[in-house]
Amino acid sequence: MEREDEDVDAADLLSSDEEEEGEGDASEDDDGTPEDVHAAEQPAAPPQPAAVEHVPPADAAAEIASLRHQLAANGRLYDAHVRLIELLRGSGDVNGARHAREVMSAQFPLCERLWREWIADEKRQIAAAAGAAPGGVSAEAARAHGAYVLALYARGTADYLSPALWLERALFVLEGGGGGAAEDGEAAARAALEDAVAAAGAHVLEGGKLWAAYTLFERQLLDALRDDAAAEPTALAAQAARVRAVYRRRLCTPLLDLDGARREYAAWAASCGEVVDEEVLARADGAQRALGALLEHERALIDGGKEAESVCAAAAHTLSAQQWVRWQAYAAHEASRSAARACVVYERCVAAAPLFEPAWLEYVAYARAQRTVGARAASICERAARNIAVSAELWAAALLELDRFGMAAERGAAAFAAGCACGLRGGGPDYAALLCAYVAHLCRQLAVPPARPSDEQVAALRHAFALGEHYLGAAGVFPNADADDRFARLCARVEAMRLGDAAGARARWENILRRQGTRAAAWLEAIALVLETAEGGAVCAHAHARALFKRGVNSVQDAPALLSDAWVRFEEAHGSADELALALARAGRKAAEGAARAAAAASVGPWDMGARARSSVGAG
User: Is the pLDDT reported for residue 594 higher than 60?
Assistant: First the structure.
C-alpha cells in the first residue's frame, strides 16, 4: 500500500538568517490541542445545483469501471482509491468523486493534499449553487453549506497534523463561511484561530503563519474599534489586552519567524504609545535560545530526507533507521520541555511516514503515559490503528483508551469491526488477542454487579462469543490458532461472573479441558471459577470442585504434584476426614509415580541413551 502526501520543502524555510544557537527554555501558555473532532456527527452534503450528466471518455470510463470492480472486491487498495478519485474529478463527476472520497475515508486516513482538493471542490460547488439560485441561497442553505465544509475541515485536521488545513479552516470561518449569525462571527473566528494555534502553533516551521493570522485578526478588530467614535473605552481596553495576550503567547513560542514577530510587536506597541513589556522580551529571548537547538533538529530531519531521496524514492511514507533516530532525538528533546510540544513532533513524524509502525507504537505509548494528553490518547490510538490496520496491538490499545475516557460505545464496536476486516498480519493468534480485547471492552460497558446487564449488552457479548467461534473454533477460519484457549477461558469467566450463567461457564470449561486437560493450570483455573461463582451454594460448589480435582489428577502430565497439593489444601479447609484421606492417598501415589519415573530416567546414563539411539537407527 502506498500513500501520497503533499511535499513541503522545509529547507527553504530554514535558509533564512542563521539563528542564535544555544540552550534555553521558553515558558508556554498552550499545553494541549482541541478535543477530538473526528467523532463528531458529520452533516450530510448540502443541496447542489441541478446535476449535469458527465460522460467520461471511453478509456477513462473503462478504467473507472475496472477500479470500482477492484475496490468492490478489496477496499484496502489505497492507490486504486486515489486513481478513481482522480478520474472522477477529471471527468467532472462531482457526486461520484464525493462518494469515492467518502468510501476511501472510511478505509484510510486521507493526506493533506486529498483533503484540500476535496474541500476546494465542495467550495466550488457551493459557489455554483449560490450563482444558480435566483437571488442567492437562503440563510438556511448557507448554514448547511458552511456546516458541511467545516465538517470536512474537522475530519481533515483529525487525520494528520496539517498547519495548512488549520489555517484554511480559520480563514474560512473568518470569511463567514461557517454560516453563523453576524454577531457570532467574531467569537467563532477567535475560537477557530485558538483551535489552530493549539493544534499546530508549536510547529517550528509552519506555526508562525497561524500566530500571524491570529495577531492580524485581533489587531484589525482593535483598529475597527479605534475608528468607531461610539466605541466604549472599556471595549477598546479589552481588545488591546487581547492583542497583547496573543503577542505574549506568540513570542514565548520558539518559531522560525520569531525575530520578525518581535519587531512587529515593538512597532505595534510604539504605534499605541505603549511601553514594550520587558517580561515579554525576556520570554522572547528564552524562546530564541530554545529555537537554536530546535533548528539543529530541523536541519537533521531535512538532511535525512535528502539522504532517503537519494537512496530510494519508493521508500516514501516510511523511515530509515537513521531517520527514525533523528525523529526520536527531536521528540525526546521536546518531551523534556512539554508533552504538547513532543506530541507535535510525533504528529509531524507520523504525517511524514504514516506507514512506519515503530513511530506509531512509540507515539501511542508516550501519549498513554502522559496525563496532560488526556482523552486525545484515544484518538491517537484510533488513528494509529487505521494507519497500521494489520496490528492487533494497536486496535486493542484503541479499545482500551476509548473506555478510559468514556467515549461512545459505538466507536469501540466500529474499531473492532475495522480491525477484523483489515486482515490482521498475525492470523489466528492476532484475532484471538483482538477478540479478547473486544470482550473485555464490552465487559467494561456493563454495570457493576449485582446490577444486571441489559438485553442489548448481553446480545453484544453473545455476538462476540459467536465471532470467536467463527474465527477460532474447530471449524472456524483459524482452527486451533488460540493454542492456550485464552479467548475461550475469558468467555467462560464472563459467562459465570458477568452474565450469571454458571452452567454455561461449566460447559465452556468442559470443552477447554478436552484440549488443555494435560495442564495443571487449566484444571486449577476451572476449579477456581467454580469456587468463586459458588452456584447452588458452597456445598454444591465444593462438590463440583472436588469432582474436577479427582478427574484432573488422573489427566495432568506437566505438573501433577501441583494439582495434588492443591487438592489436599482444598480438603483440609472444606473436606471430611475421608475426603482428605483420599486426597492424601492420591497425592502420595502421584508423588511415588513421579519419583519412579525420575529414578528410571536417572538410571539411564548418556552412554546407554546413545546406544539405544544407535540400535534404534540400526533396527530402522
Answer: yes
Question: DSSP readout, 414-465?
Answer: HHHHHHHHT--TT-HHHHHHHHHHHHHHHHHTSPPTTSPPPHHHHHHHHHHH
Name the grid cell of 460: 453484544
The C-alpha cell 481533515 sits at 156
pLDDT at 277: 87
Using DSSP's 3-state secondary structure scheme, residue 550 falls into helix
What end-to-end distance do the CA atoms of the chain give, in Å? Answer: 52
**Residue 225 and residue 234 in contact, taking contact as beta carbons nearer than 8 Å:** no
Q: How far apart are CA 294 and CA 21, in angstroms?
A: 9
pLDDT number for residue 51: 45
Given a cut of 90, whether residue 291 has pLDDT beyond it is yes
pLDDT in tens, 147-169: 999 999 999 999 999 999 999 99
List CB contacts of 377: < 8 A, sequence separation 6 or more: 364, 367, 368, 370, 401, 404, 405
> How many residues are there in the chain?
620
Smallest CA-to-CA distance from 193 within 169, 223, 219 is with 169
d(CA 269, CA 250) in angstroms, rounded, equals 15
Of 3, 1, 2, nearest to 110 by C-alpha is 3
Total Cβ atoms within 10 A of residue 300: 17
- Residues of the chain above pLDDT 90, percent: 68
* Dihedral over alpha carbons 314, 316, 318, 319 (to 10 degrees): 90
- Is residue 1 within 8 A of residue 107, CB to CB? The reply is no
Q: Count the neighbouring beta carbons within 10 Å of the beta carbon of residue 44.
A: 9
Instruction: Find out whether 2 and 317 touch, Cβ atoms under 8 Å.
Output: yes
Residue showing cell 533564512: 16
- Other CB atoms within a 10 A radius of the CB of residue 128 amount to 13
CB atoms within 10 A of CB 299: 14
Alpha carbon distance 128, 7 (integer Å): 30
Question: Mean pLDDT over residues 62-69, rounded?
Answer: 95
Express each pLDDT in 496-506 by its tens digit: 999 999 999 99
**Under 8 Å between Cβ of 71 and 77:** yes
HEC states along 458-491? Answer: HHHHHHHHHHHHHHHCCCCCCCCCCCCCHHHHHH
User: Is the bond preceding residue 34 a cis peptide, omega within 30 degrees?
Assistant: no
For position 535, what pLDDT does the model report?
79
Whether pLDDT at 517 is above 70? yes
pLDDT at 350: 96
Average pLDDT over residues 375-401: 94
Q: Residue 311, CB half-sphere, CA atoms under 13 Å: how many? A: 12
Side-chain half-sphere CA neighbours of 200 within 13 A:
28
Q: Which residues, at least 6 apart from 584, have a Cβ–Cβ distance to it below 8 Å?
A: 568
* Identity at 583, one-letter amino acid code: A
Q: What is the largest CA-CA distance in the chain?
A: 114
d(CA 508, CA 492): 6
Taking alpha carbons only, the member of 170, 215, 174 closest to residue 193 is 170
Please, what is the average pLDDT of the chain? 86
